[in-house]
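testing teh design pipeline on a random one, pls ignore if ur not involved
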């Protein structure tokens, strides 16, 4: 039987927005408890009519921001708040009518206030309040259209001014399985802190200190690498398609991401640019792709020899640690290329005027 809210508001999913309403109470509860909510700043992406929102509100977040693109859902959320269906008394709840890929989080922790989480817009921070005093501190829960899975991960990991501490994101199961397939047991990773290990062996790092070259079925990808640079990840739950209204054609999975700073010394822009060049034509050798991107063959071969990488290897055969070392070696050249590209762009612009 459909939830009362769907019947009351006569809701119909919009295919253009990739909408499928999660209606199973058990799955909603699993997602709502996937990350720590009590006393935290939470951003819920794609709340729809508020089914998951109800679960989050019962956990008393410090603040809850609902990021929704559909104006009809915004109206329903506002109505449910007004009628008391969504109980927000005493809670800081904010609705943002915006495309999540254009959304910039505005949650901060004030260190001079005893470390309390406070809701404050960047625009309202006083000149006397330094950026070190106010730092963004928030987590994300997202039930999103699957076609923006990669863009939303990139947005929150690379494009916003500060990434969230945690994310619980629902995605197509086969995509989630590909992300999880790269992981090694947490007990064998030197990158994972004791605080992670004590949570149990179901938590695994995406990033790996070694590489299983013998496993030919496992292949790296740009998606996996840009996640590995920033996150540890675990499986929360599988969500059968029958738990949605209307039911999608594929099964779903919820993954829990916890951000880390193990590779903070590697510039994000340079890292992304180099791995994209390495996967320009995924089935070609990495050497060929890098040569086609303008790097010197002699230098690349020296780097490969230094890192014990075969000159016949493809980009998909390297793990995150190997890619990090490659990027470190190429970083100076890439920075020069970016600078030169910008210089030429300015010259062309000058000619045009």
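output:
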């Amino acid at each position: 039987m459909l939830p009362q809210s769907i019947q009351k508001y006569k809701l119909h999913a919009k295919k253009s927005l990739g909408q499928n309403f999660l209606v199973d109470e058990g799955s909603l509860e699993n997602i709502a408890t996937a990350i720590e909510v009590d006393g935290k700043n939470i951003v819920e992406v794609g709340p729809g009519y508020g089914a998951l929102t109800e679960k989050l509100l019962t956990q008393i977040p410090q603040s809850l921001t609902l990021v929704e693109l559909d104006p009809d859902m915004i109206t329903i959320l506002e109505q449910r708040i007004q009628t008391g269906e969504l109980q927000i008394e005493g809670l800081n709840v904010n609705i943002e009518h915006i495309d999540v890929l254009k959304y910039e989080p505005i949650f901060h922790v004030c260190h001079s206030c005893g470390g309390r989480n406070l809701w404050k817009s960047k625009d309202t921070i006083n000149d006397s309040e330094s950026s070190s005093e106010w730092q963004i501190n928030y987590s994300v829960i997202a039930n999103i259209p699957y076609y923006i899975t990669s863009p939303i991960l990139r947005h929150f990991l690379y494009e916003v001014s500060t990434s969230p501490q945690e994310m619980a994101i629902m995605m197509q199961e086969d995509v989630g399985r590909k992300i999880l397939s790269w992981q090694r047991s947490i007990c064998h990773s030197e990158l994972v802190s004791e605080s992670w290990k004590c949570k149990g062996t179901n938590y695994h790092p995406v990033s790996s200190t070694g590489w299983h070259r013998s496993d030919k079925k496992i292949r790296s990808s740009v998606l996996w690498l840009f996640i590995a640079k920033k996150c540890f990840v675990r499986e929360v739950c599988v969500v059968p398609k029958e738990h949605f209204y209307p039911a999608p054609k594929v099964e779903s999975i919820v993954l829990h991401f916890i951000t880390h700073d193990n590779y903070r010394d590697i510039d994000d822009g340079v890292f992304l640019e180099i791995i994209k060049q390495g996967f320009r034509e995924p089935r070609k050798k990495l050497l060929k792709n890098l040569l086609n991107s303008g790097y010197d063959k002699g230098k690349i071969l020296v780097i490969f020899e230094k890192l014990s990488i075969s000159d016949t290897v493809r980009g998909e055969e390297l793990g995150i640690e190997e890619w990090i070392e490659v990027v470190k070696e190429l970083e100076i050249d890439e920075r020069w290329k970016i600078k030169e590209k910008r210089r030429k762009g300015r010259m062309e612009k000058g000619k045009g005027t």
